[in-house]
Design goal:
This protein is of the alpha+beta class. Helix content is 51%, strand content 16%. It has 2 domains: 194 residues, no CATH class; 113 residues, Immunoglobulin-like (Sandwich).
């Protein structure tokens, strides 16, 4: 089971695992004003991958009427300028696109506030980089956009996936595993909501170090089993999953901090983002368990050191992330 799960996880995570960092989505926000005037805000994370060059492509019939103003903070860079669209419809019916998405995994949340203050939201990504502003926005668009962001966030976060993999390797039996994964879900759902709503503020760089530390602690537990005196982590893995879930939830909130929540649909957007995270997490668990079932027989005679290899791989990556993130913190 350990070898199968490890091999499948490393295949899913890919060669970029060592460079794990929180998802760095971009945000393109347009706010309609009077007489066809609209304010544009283009927000990108400082954590975007090297070589990633994505840019908004606004309607050619809506030229810029002001120079961009740069706003910077510790996490992002935002450009703000105004455009002028002819006619009475403003942004309705206009096509918006993002260039450069084919060469990167970055998603872009597009949020358009129409003249009557209704909000249209969608997510653009490689393979679907264009969007035409509809006249009648629906709540389903917010649900779809933020669910997709949550799903992409968990599946592009190797540190979170390796923690879930560690839980799969640690817990024996599907009932205890279900209880443990549920506890992890409850934990990160609580802190994701609290942090995303701004009720608690924690330095994101410190949280990333602690998340790597949680992965390392779990890897150490996988390699040091005492059958005579099992540790608390083995006796009550759900308790550990709940505690570290609280920590990982703060990391999940980092993605929402990058793009923000729509003022008029905060509960729906937060709920949808959480749903997306859970769908991605369950998809990962399902793939690991299905692959383990299919490959169990061919690898049943593998030597013990091979079976322990996934735990050492997880631990090695966790140490690398801890050193890398600590260096960035200092």
């Amino acid at each position: 089971m350990a070898l199968i799960a490890g091999a499948l996880a490393l295949a899913l995570i890919g060669p970029g695992a060592a460079a794990a960092h929180p998802l760095a989505p971009a945000l393109l926000e347009l706010r309609s004003g009077e007489d066809g005037l609209a304010e544009v805000a283009w927000k990108t994370s400082r954590l975007k991958p090297r070589g990633a060059d994505i840019r908004p492509l606004l309607p050619s019939e809506c030229p810029a009427v002001s120079d961009p103003v740069v706003e910077e903070d510790e996490q992002s860079v935002t450009l703000v300028w105004n455009i002028q669209c002819p006619g009475n419809e403003g942004l309705v019916g206009r096509q918006i696109a993002i260039s450069g998405l084919e060469a990167t995994r970055i998603d872009v949340l597009v949020r358009v506030t129409l003249a009557d203050q209704r909000v249209v939201s969608t997510v653009l990504h490689a393979g679907d980089s264009e969007f035409r502003v509809p006249a009648r926005p629906e709540k389903s668009q917010v649900f779809k956009a933020y669910t997709q962001l949550g799903f992409q966030h968990i599946l592009t976060g190797p540190d979170h996936l390796l923690f879930v993999l560690g839980l799969i390797l640690l817990v024996i039996g599907w009932r205890p595993l279900l209880k443990t994964v549920t506890a992890f879900t409850v934990g990160h759902s609580l802190t994701l909501s609290v942090v995303a709503l701004g009720l608690v503020r924690v330095p994101s760089s410190l949280i990333e170090v602690l998340i790597a530390g949680s992965v390392l602690l779990l890897a150490v537990e996988l390699t040091t089993r005492n059958r005579a005196r099992p540790s608390l982590l083995r006796r009550k893995p759900w308790l550990m999953a709940l505690g570290f879930g609280l920590l990982h939830g703060m990391g999940f909130a980092g993605a929402l901090a990058e793009i923000g929540l729509p003022d008029d649909e905060i509960p729906l957007a937060l709920f949808s983002f959480n749903i997306g995270i859970e769908l991605g997490q369950l998809a990962f668990v399902a793939v690991i368990l299905a692959g383990a079932g299919l490959l169990r027989a061919p690898l049943a005679r593998a030597p013990i050191w091979v079976l322990r290899a996934p735990a050492y791989v997880i631990g090695s990556l966790a140490v690398y992330w801890m050193l890398e993130r600590t260096a960035g913190l200092l």
